Every structure is written in C-alpha cells, then in structure tokens.
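In the lab's daily routine, each protein ends up as an entry in a very long ledger. A line of letters takes care of the sequence, but it says nothing directly about the fold. The fold becomes a row of whole numbers, each drawn from a learned catalogue of backbone shapes. The protein below has been through that process, and both of its lines are reproduced in full:
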Amino acid sequence: MENNVFEQLAKQYDTEERMELAKVIVKEVRPELGDSTSKSLIDYGGGTGLVSLELADLVDSILLVDSSKQMLEVAKAKASHKEITNSKVLYSDFTQETPELKADIVLMSLVLLHIPDTKNILQRLFNLLNHDGKLIIVDFDKNDKINHPKIHNGFSHEKLKKRLTEVGFKSTEIKTFYHGNCIFMNQDASMFISSSIK
C-alpha cells in the first residue's frame, strides 16, 4: 500500500521530462562537488530530491529544503526506498525567514527563476554558507521567447555574476552546458551552471 502511494505521488511530480532533465543536471553537478565526503549540502528548493538524492554518495549530509510539504514527503519516501541514510528534509521558505543553519555547499537547481527577489535569496544563501563555502546554481539562460508574470525568463551570465559579487561571493564561474528542446515553458532553451565561492 505505502509503495503504491509513493509511486502515485512520484508520478505526479517526477514526469519523464523532469527525470531526464534531472539526469543531465546531476551529471553536470557531480564534478562540481569533487571530494566533498566531509561536507554538508543544502538543496534549496529540492522538491522531490530528483537531483540531490543522486548526489548523496558524494557528501556527508544532505538537507532538502522546500516550501512544498507534499514534495518533501515524496523525497523522504524516495530516500528510504533507496536506503539513503544521510538525507533529511526541512519544510521552509527562506524568502520568508531563514532558520539558523550552516552548510558547506548550497545547491539551487531550477529554483532561482521562481524567486522574484533574487538578490534577497542570494544574500540569505551566502549568509548560511560556511567560510569558503560553495553556491551551485543551475538555471536557464536568458530567453526572450519566455514571458510569464510569475517567473524570470532565465538569467544573463553577466548580470547574475554581478549580483553574486554584490552579495559577497569572491569568485563565480558560469558556463552554459546544455541545450534542449521544449525544456523551458515548452520552448527550446539552454541551461547554465554557476559556481560561486564565499
């Protein structure tokens, strides 16, 4: 019975397309983590854990943070199903308030585009990183074909870099790593990975 509920919920969130995209992202993020077996990772906006649970073997601990309780339930069920013991979930929205947390690495995968005040969230994530901590952002490159009142239409590398510098990051490297068909609001789009050091 429990497995069935998990399957249904997972199907609802983890569509074929999302799972394919997550595989592409995981493949790109893994080398960024390098030797992080002693480090803590926060996956902000981690959803059902499609990306971060696939990285559990590279870090000491994972905290999946999301503002959707249902998605976190799916992530928990998935972790126990896959016998991942170093992950926890936290129901929270850091745009409202940030709990007292510290981490060595923060990952934000296809989340920034949903946050209206990007500077505010980047500042909050900067604050919870340990010294020399790393912020990894995966998101869409700026795309003029996209026009939606609730989301950003991707990001320009220069502007994002400037914003990350403004909140205090020492260095940022950004590169486009993937082009896909109909992956962003049914439009062809490209994704970038950005890695910033505190």
In short: The mean pLDDT is 93. The first strand starts at residue 36 and ends at 44. Residues 2-197 form a domain with the Rossmann fold fold (CATH 3.40.50.150). The radius of gyration is 16 Å.
